[in-house]
Amino acid sequence: MRALLKILVALAVIAGAAFWFLTEPQPVEFSRVQQLITMRSDAARGEQVFWAGGCASCHAAAGAEGDARLVLSGGVRLKSDFGTFVAPNISPDPVAGIGNWTIAEFANAMLAGVAPDGGHYYPSFPYGSYSRMSDADIADLYAFLNTLPPSGVASAPHELAFPFSVRRLVGGWKLLYFNAAPRVTLASADAVLARGQYLVEGPGHCGECHTPRDLIGGFRSGEWLAGAPNPEGEGIIPNITPGGSDISGWSAGDIATYLETGFTPDFDTVGGSMVEVVRNLAHLPASDREAIAAYLKAIPARPNGYSAAN
Amino acid sequence: MKFRIVMTATLLGLAAATFAHAADEPQVVRQEMMKKIGGATGAMAKMVKGETPYDQAAAIAALQTIADTITLFPEQFPEGSETGMESEAAPAIWTNKADFEAKAMKLHADAEAAIAANPADVDALKAVFGPLTQNCGSCHETYRLKKG
């Protein structure tokens, strides 16, 4: 009996150690950080990255319009099956915001989902997409964010129930789902398509809403951009592959126009959280919206990732 | 034989009544209104994009359609019409009715202002078209759901 107990305790210790080892937050590789530190940055270019990344949609105060969208005081509440995530203050305020962050800390957050204290961020902050961003975009975005007005508003904690409140568990999620690999393999090496792929899969983080998720919040495999139930409540997020019925009839030009103006080909207009996305994308050069459209026409067609009941 | 004719007539009458009924449902009425506004917006957008030549009378008529239609629009959301008939109305309409109505009246005011500006050429239309269509997104953002 005592022998059995010893074995059980030993197994528990091994399991615990394995969990701890496997869920350890992994920051960005040192060589990449070195490169980022020595890089020249361009804040003006960073503004384009800022709009492509949609930072203001979550980090500006809810309902902010015009220049107020550049005050990244946080506070937007993202409802999910796991609880409510509250976007933090990422303004350059040294106390309430991220004004004291080094570029290494910024890169760890964006590319690895690791906080300055070494802990995991929840993937509600879409580093699962941002991990695909280039060094130049990270450096330029860092420079641009530092030019924005500081806000002293304190960040509010997430409202999550146990066990989702245990940050270390995000390490398990990362093991299963987190990487920087391309979401799809494109047949053509066309530069416009490559730009579209970068924008959609990386900074644009389109898949975070448009790809259906499994029970623990990972993307369901083989359903990239196939549409999903609305995580915030009723309704759906459309299927934006060339399959399904949502936009399969749209030309690349229709998609690019929609991303700029919000108008569908039959002059219906964008609704829900996509309104903010269009406001952001309208700041990009037309060539970027055309690249996104070209990519969306080139990816594999999928049936809808949501059911008709949604 | 006579019975059959009466039955058939009754059924046809019922079917017609159901059809007429469906067309009167507020869910259908408001969807038609939005399509009307979309059509008017589309007519102006084609001019703005240079796909059709500028036609001042048509632009004013489109603006008038929007101004008139949106005035009646908020009445089409009575209690009990929250869902059904492929309605994409968000529950927030009923919990935040005053704001919803204010947004409709804002579009009305902007359309009337555009009519008053009497855009003489396509550049003048462009100047009012942008601000006018901002209203679409600012209302749909909160009050419209996308349904599958």
Automatic annotation (TrEMBL), chain A:
SUPFAM superfamilies cross-referenced by the UniProt entry: Cytochrome c (SSF46626)
Domain Cytochrome c: 41-149, 191-300
Leader sequence segment: none
InterPro entries, per database record: Cyt_c-like_dom, Cyt_c-like_dom_sf, Cytochrome_c-type_DH
Pfam families (UniProt xref): Cytochrom_C
GO MF: electron transfer activity; heme binding; metal ion binding
Top-level taxon: Bacteria
Membrane-spanning intervals of the chain: none
Keywords: Heme, Iron, Metal-binding
Name of the protein in its database record: Mono/diheme cytochrome c family protein
TrEMBL record, chain B:
Superkingdom as given in the UniProt entry: Bacteria
PROSITE patterns recorded: CYTCII (PS51009)
GO cellular component: periplasmic space
UniProt GO MF annotations: electron transfer activity; heme binding; iron ion binding
Alphabetical UniProt keywords: Electron transport, Heme, Iron, Metal-binding, Signal, Transport
Post-translational modification summary for this protein: Binds 1 heme group per subunit.
The keyword Isomerase is assigned to this record: no
Residues reported to bind heme c: 136, 139-140
Signal peptide range in chain numbering: 1-22
One of the GO biological process terms: electron transport chain
Coiled-coil portions: none
Record carries keyword Phosphoprotein: no
Name of protein: Cytochrome c556
Organism: Hoeflea marina
Lineage, broadest ranks: Bacteria, Pseudomonadati, Pseudomonadota, Alphaproteobacteria, Hyphomicrobiales
